[in-house]
Amino acid sequence: MSHESRPHDSRPHTARPHDSRPHTARPGVSREVRLAAVPDGLPRPEHFEVAEAPLPEPAPGQALVRNRFFHVFAALRTLIGGLQGAPLPPLRPGDTLIGPAVGEVVSAPDGAALRPGDLVLHGQGWREYAAVPVERCVPLGDALPDPAAHLSKGWIAYAALALNARVRPGDTVFVSGGAGAVGSMAGQIARLLGARRVVGGTGSPEKAARMLDELGYDAVVLRGGAPTAEQLAEAAPDGIDVHLDNSGGEQLRGALAAARPDARFVLVGALSGQLSERGTGGSAPVELDTYQLILKRVTVRGLSAPDDPEEQARWTERFGGWLRSGEIVFPHVRVPGIDQAPRALHEVFTGRHFGAVLVEV
Fold first, then answer.
1. pLDDT at 27
2. CA separation (Å) from 183 to 42, 145, 234?
3. Do 272 and 235 lie in a common domain?
4. Which of 54, 197, 235, 335 lies at a 20 to 30 A Cα distance from 14?
């Protein structure tokens, strides 16, 4: 299977979100995606602008990086909504969006380990050029066969399953949001960690078919169909041992109903709230039967992905080996051109794509 999504998902867009004229940045200018207005409901392309800015002048200790790819992720809805206390700061009109990016070093300070031409991972996506502190640039090397794979959410899925839930051989695992950036990796990783049966959740019959055909899921629970508890009773009649929750809401309730004694739940995302047409994406309330938590001794924890370079290096080495052997794939869509980024973000919010979405700058 190709590392890229099918042509339906990855075909180039012909419409530009803000300007139908060809647009090439002038020398000394960098383009970036800014929040133009705070929306009432889900953000749409018109709530953003692709603006020109002077080419960044690196301060002492900074490298100038030309971005090649950046990741388009649903959690930006929460930042746009202004939630305080999130891992990343809220966005206000005029702010440039942020997020993981892979770029090429243009210049670096004297004495730095970085050299022009090096590929690095950093957090200043959504722009063509970035001035990044050297200590926040992660050199990529050749651990992965495709530099874009460094933007995979495989590390999040691995941390949730291997380090938090501690998946064991023979476990039955349920992954909600199984066709998204995290879920499309999580089903495969659960299998590689020894899970006996892996069930995924999604809201699209087309995505469900691909999850079964391409990602190795044994069964799929369709959001919007019969209650999740009923579908899980059929898909996992012996119950579930591990739940990686990307969605919250009704699927989390259904997972609790299907939980076996001593089940381990890891909460990674809250798409039921983040992608709601109402509110600001900063709340995802759900009613759980706490008596069942007690009776079944279910452990529920929020994701803890260690900020440990050695642990992350071990993951990257393992991931690279799995990619080269074909034991795992990185499902993703590449959207060409920064001008298409606002449209790509809206498509992520509305669930159009399968796997991760990357903008190729």
1. 63
2. 22, 21, 21
3. yes
4. 54
